[in-house]
């Protein structure tokens, strides 16, 4: 007699204890157990039985795994399905337990069953908009760089300003006073060289009459002893 | 005759002139190196620009672009400074001082911008994670750029998700809404053979850690952006510290001229 293999999933919402184990245990001894709580209605409302049976199959369909370490059963691999015994996804964030049962194919009563597993809590699905990507904090290097650079820049600007003001306003005291005609160099006369002496200190002054530019007399009378002085 | 007055401290001026010329040679080399380093950052060899671009916080690269120009400008100005110092010309020295100050201001801006935006971007993993969940496998230009970038990172760095594959199953995402719950995470998280075939798709879907990558990608992304930022901001900071003292010396020289 071929026996059918089933997996039963039971759900609990509030605490770690499976409240709905009792639902399955209550139905355990009835016939046609695979139709008592089909998957689409198992979790749909508050009054549903909150368990479902899935993965019907004969024993020969479940051989021992060939590759070691890959013996697993993936709950929910059918996604959102609608047939009565499909392997659908569990509600998000719920806590579940499972067990294996052997069912008599004739009247679908439970023949043998394993123990309930431990509670398995699923991840609650968080909204990505709830991630706060605002202020991530300031690193130490950012504070060092910003503060030192800003203060040095301010210092540089200040020093440049002070230097410019100093150069524009206060620099005159350092310069020497240029007095026209002050004797700085004196060249002695040279008797051997009877060229007319030109004192270079007086170069700045307006042109004075020298030997090269004779004085032009406006009137000149030849001084004659014979003639008495008539003019003056 | 002004020449008589300055001849008295000529030795000091010559000494300062030599120091200035040497400092300017060093500054020119430093400025050129800054330009080259900034070009390396702007080229973005790790191709992670979309992560910063889509979020709008791409000023690490803006800092790099400014540093390209200020680095080259520092080079040119330092060469000019050598000329100004050798000629002992007051007008040239003043021009040098004012132009160097303007470039100094821009370089300060570049350093501060780069380091501040690095903090926004990779201070913690939240921004990168939120962007990945929102834009991976999304439609549109941003979506495709983010998807391509993440696929490249996951393949090359051998990682999955931001802090780990758990990000994909803990949060709702565009990827989950599009592809349902059969694939809890993208197939790029799975280990592949050399011919790009997935080693074991079912085991990868189940989360078996021998067949998929379990470390997060955030460490790599953070280290790349930090590398770019330290290149621009810390090296720029070093150049600016050197230029500060050079400018102080130049001001003293100008006063002595």
From TrEMBL, chain A:
Residues 1-18 form the signal peptide. GO terms for cellular component: membrane. It comes from the Eukaryota. Residues 196-219 are annotated as: Disordered. Keywords: Membrane, Signal, Transmembrane, Transmembrane helix. The chain crosses the membrane at residues 142-168. This is Uroplakin 3b.
UniProtKB/TrEMBL annotation, chain B:
Belongs to the tetraspanin (TM4SF) family. The chain crosses the membrane at residues 12-40, 60-86, 93-115, 232-256. GO terms for cellular component: membrane. Gene3D superfamilies: Tetraspanin (1.10.1450.10). Keywords: Membrane, Transmembrane, Transmembrane helix. Its main location: membrane. It is a multi-pass membrane protein. It is found in: Membrane. InterPro entries: Tetraspanin/Peripherin, Tetraspanin_animals, Tetraspanin_EC2_sf. SUPFAM superfamilies: Tetraspanin (SSF48652). It comes from Hucho hucho (huchen). Pfam families: Tetraspanin. It comes from the Eukaryota. This is Tetraspanin.
């Amino acid at each position: 007699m071929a026996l059918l293999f089933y997996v039963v999933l039971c759900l609990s919402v509030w605490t770690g204890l499976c409240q709905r184990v009792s639902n399955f245990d209550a139905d355990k001894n009835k016939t046609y157990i695979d139709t008592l709580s089909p998957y689409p209605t198992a979790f749909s409302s508050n009054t549903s039985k909150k368990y479902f049976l899935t993965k019907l199959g004969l024993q020969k369909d479940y051989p021992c795994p060939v590759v070691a370490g890959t013996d697993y059963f993936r709950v929910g691999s059918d996604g959102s399905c609608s047939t009565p015994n499909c392997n659908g996804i569990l509600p998000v964030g719920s806590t579940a337990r499972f067990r294996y049962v052997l069912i008599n194919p004739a009247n679908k009563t439970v023949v043998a069953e394993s123990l309930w597993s431990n509670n398995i809590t699923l991840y609650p699905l968080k909204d990505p908009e709830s991630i706060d990507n605002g202020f991530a904090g300031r690193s130490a290097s950012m504070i060092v760089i910003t503060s030192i650079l800003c203060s040095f820049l301010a210092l540089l600007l200040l020093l440049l300003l002070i230097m410019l003001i100093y150069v524009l306003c206060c620099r005159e005291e350092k310069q020497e006073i240029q007095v026209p005609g002050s004797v700085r160099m004196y060249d002695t006369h040279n008797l051997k060289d009877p060229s007319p002496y030109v004192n270079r200190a007086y170069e700045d002054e307006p042109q004075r009459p020298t030997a090269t530019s004779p004085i032009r007399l406006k009137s000149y009378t030849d001084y004659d002893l014979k003639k008495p002085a008539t003019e003056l | 005759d002004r020449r008589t007055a300055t001849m008295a401290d000529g030795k000091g001026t010559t000494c300062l002139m030599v120091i200035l010329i040497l400092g300017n040679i060093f500054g020119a080399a430093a400025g050129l190196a800054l330009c080259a380093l900034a070009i390396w950052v702007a080229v973005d060899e790790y191709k992670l620009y979309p992560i910063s671009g889509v979020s709008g916080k791409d000023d690490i690269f803006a800092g790099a672009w400014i540093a390209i120009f200020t680095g080259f400008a520092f080079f040119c100005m330092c060469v000019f400074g050598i000329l100004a110092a050798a000629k002992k010309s007051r007008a040239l020295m003043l021009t040098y001082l004012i132009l160097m100050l303007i470039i100094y201001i821009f370089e300060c801006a570049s350093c501060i911008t780069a380091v501040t935006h690095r903090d926004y971007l990779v201070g913690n993993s939240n921004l990168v994670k939120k962007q990945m969940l929102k834009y991976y496998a999304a439609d549109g230009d941003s979506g495709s750029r983010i998807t391509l970038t993440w696929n490249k990172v996951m393949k090359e760095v051998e990682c999955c998700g931001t802090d780990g594959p758990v990000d994909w199953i803990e949060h709702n995402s565009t990827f989950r809404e599009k592809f349902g719950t059969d694939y809890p995470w993208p197939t790029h998280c799975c280990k592949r053979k050399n011919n790009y075939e997935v080693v074991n798709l079912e085991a990868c879907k189940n989360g078996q850690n021998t067949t998929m990558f379990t470390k997060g990608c955030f460490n790599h992304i953070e280290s790349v952006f930090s590398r770019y930022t330290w290149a621009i901001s810390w090296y720029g900071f070093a150049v600016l510290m050197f230029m500060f003292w050079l400018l102080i010396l130049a001001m003293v020289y100008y006063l002595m001229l």
